[in-house]
């Protein structure tokens, strides 16, 4: 359990998420994250001179990613050291946990976690194969070639459908919850996007003489009961249609992690402390049980925090497939309609690196609205691994 790791209130942002091969497709995600962070520091009047270490989280290589955190820091006009962390879809939670450990140990007092990714136009890596016939090279597409679990060779959809079969989930249940998740997202759009404007920071893209500003999610598809009923399952006999799974996306997010004193200095409201309490990570048996892993990780984090799930005020869960939420609700004994309020990756997309950071930020803001309490953030990490965080607001 962590004792002295905090997130300043409003010491975080998420950009809109942009469906892949759209507005962010041609921009280096590390540079875009650094430039957006710089704009955020300036507009929100955050004293970036207090930052003394950078954690960069990403999953897809970008140009000059060899320098990673240094490249991002340069874009922010910061002269601080840092490191790059890669942990598939749990990159955000693991990056924030690493920052929390360093702060809790007293090694650092104010750190910055920048989470970035661009699924669009992911790199295609080529390297020599000395034994290849005729000097044939080996190659890998960073995104498309890593959609299968190395332990089983299966895609993530296969793991989701396995859990659906073993728990007797139906397509009707999957469709119904997919519609609910869409409706929860639309709650964040009410009153001129009042909820999203609590944390969402626009992205500015320079194009020759003009600057385009992206301030809303791009690529959201309307989800209705009637529409889903007309879609056949992707796998014969399965429960998932294209309306019951997420889409690749691009975006970035930033989170400051500091000790209690410095977090209070940076907070926009000192009466709202946000304490990082515990982290859980696990791997299931070698059969591809992705949704199970996320729930198991949540249990580990809760146990480390010495909490039960009924003490949690807000739950946010990464849901690349709707069965992830069906299983989490069943396994933890929670109402499937009462978590992932205001949005989830099923609806607004999955840029991988920043996905769980946005969920965490939404969870913080929801909990503040509710008057404080504990937050559980959890999600899968590819085919059979999961990671989770527990925080306390107020």
Give a description of the structure.
The longest helix has 17 residues, at 171-187. The strands form four sheets. Strands 1, 2, 3, 4, 5 and 10 form a six-stranded mixed β-sheet that branches. Helix 1 packs across helix 2 and helix 9 (290-304) crosses helix 10 (322-332). A hairpin with a 2-residue loop joins strand 8 and strand 9. The chain has a domain at 156-194 and 273-393: 3-Layer(aba) Sandwich (Peroxisomal Thiolase, Chain A, domain 1). The protein starts with 11 loop residues before the first strand and ends with a strand. With 394 residues, the chain is α+β, with helices and mostly antiparallel strands. It has helices at 29-43, 69-75, 91-104, 156-166, 171-187, 190-193, 225-229, 260-266, 290-304, 322-332, 345-348, 355-369, and strands at 12-14, 18-19, 53-57, 82-85, 110-118, 124-127, 138-141, 203-207, 210-214, 249-258, 274-283, 312-317, 373-380, 385-393. The mean pLDDT is 96.
